[in-house]
Structure formats: structure tokens, C-alpha cells
Amino acid sequence: MPTRRIPTALTIAGSDSGGGAGIHADLHTFAAFGVHGTSAITALTAQHTRGVEAIHTAPTAFLHAQIEAVLGDFRVGAVKLGMLATPAIAQAVAGALATRPRLPVVLDPVLVATTGARLGTQSLVASLRRRLLPLATLVTPNIPEAEALLGRRIASRDAMLEAAHALREAGARAVLLKGGHLRGAEVADLLLGAGGEHWFQQRRRRGEFHGTGCSLSAAIAAGLALGRPLDDAVEAAIGFVQRAIAAGYRPGRGALQVLDFTAAAP
To answer: Could you read off the pLDDT of 51-63 as tens digits, one per residue?
Structure first.
């Protein structure tokens, strides 16, 4: 009997030995959406709910081999980019994806972990802007990441809109600028694309949550792999993360909570 096919997504990101973010969160998220998850690991991290102890980056030739192995065999419907760590890794990823311009790419410009540890070098920012923004179907920075990419302060919703326009001018086809770092009882996220601006608002939840950015971008990639329009994929992803946060739990000795992906499944 013929076997059924389900959509496939690829995550190119770092591992999290604590299981709450990075590759681990991405694959859990893909599974929750009924999407087959594949991966290319850019870096190994030794981390837990209290911090990052060590980072070991993958050789670029081996990273390239991982990406080509997946794209050469699977019908990948979307790619999520997370922690890239170094300019050399960013360049290797850009080189692999540039030959596939029709493949949807969700770029999460990971620079700092929730615990405050840096997950990329300073020169990585320039590489992300120059090499990967032009390949991005959607870029999903939080406020500090957008500030680093643009070299400007973002302190209001008006400034968020200006920044989103600037990121589109820098090459990204659409921007989801996450406003959680601004003060207020509600969190406002801005989606800006060819169809205009769309604001998503949700109640701010107390506590520190690990892996929210990874899971959001992975959920969007899953939606794109399923063939959903970008606006619908973003809206479904935001709802998924909010449900996963509401069901979150503390698995380690630190204060960080991780998301419950199973409870949040659509």
C-alpha cells in the first residue's frame, strides 16, 4: 500500500541541551503542527535553565553537508533559521539557500539567550543583514535584535513601525517585530508585509519563558510548509505559542519556564 506524505520543514539552528529552545523546540513545534521535522545543527550548546555553559560551532563544510542532505532528499516546504553563531556559518547557510530562491525562509535572528548569554558574535549582525535578510520570506526579531540589526533605539509602537519598514527596505519581504520588550500590560507584535501592517495583541504573562522566539518562528515555518498564507501562518503561530506558554512548566532549578508543546497543539 502507498504510504501517506506529510509536509516537511527544515530547521537550521543550534541545539539546546536543556531541551527548551533551539532545535529541540523547533522539532517539537513541527510535530505539533503535523509537519515532519528535519534539521541541520549549526552549534552544540551546553545549557540549562540557569545559563549557557559552552558553545561548540559546527564546521561549515559539515553544516553544508547537513543542509544538502536534507534538501536533496526531502520535499521541504519551508526553512526556519535560528542560532547561526558566526559570520562563517551565516555565509554557509546563505550560500545553500541562495540556489533555492522559491523556498520560504523564516529568519529568527537569534543573538542572545533568554538567560542573557550571547549566542552570536558582534560581526554576525552584519552578516545577517547583508547575506540573509534578502533571502528571508519573513524575519522575526524581538526589539533588541531589531535594534542591533538597524543600529537604532526602538522605544514605542511608532518606532516599531519605522523599524519594520527599515528591515523591509534592507531586503526582508515581511517582518514580524515582537514587542515583548516594551512596557505595558499587553504585548503588541507587528506584522508588516506587502499587504500592509497587522498588529497582534495579547495579555502579558508573568514569568520568564524559554524558547518562545524559537517556537514562534518554527510554528510559522510549519504553517508555510502546510501551504497557509503568511498572515494565517503568523496568526496560528502566535496562538500556538500563547497556549504553550499558558501550559508551561519549570523543569530545572532555574526560574525559566519552558513551553508545553503537546498541550498547545492545534
So the answer is: 889 999 999 999 9
For domain 8-264, the question of CATH label 3.40.1190.20 is answered with yes
pLDDT in tens, 4-26: 789 999 999 999 999 999 999 99
pTM (2 d.p.):
0.94
The C-alpha atoms of residue 43 and residue 28 are separated, in whole angstroms, by 18
Written in H, E and C, the secondary structure of 171-235 is: CCCCEEEECCCCCCCEEEEEEEECCEEEEEEEECCCCCEECHHHHHHHHHHHHHHCCCCHHHHHH
Beta bridge partners of 10: 38, 79
* DSSP conformational letter for 112: B
Contact 163, 145 (CB under 8 A): no
Q: What is the largest distance, in Å, between two alpha-carbon atoms of the chain? A: 58
Q: How far apart are CA 19 and CA 45, in angstroms?
A: 11
Domain boundaries, the chain: 8-264
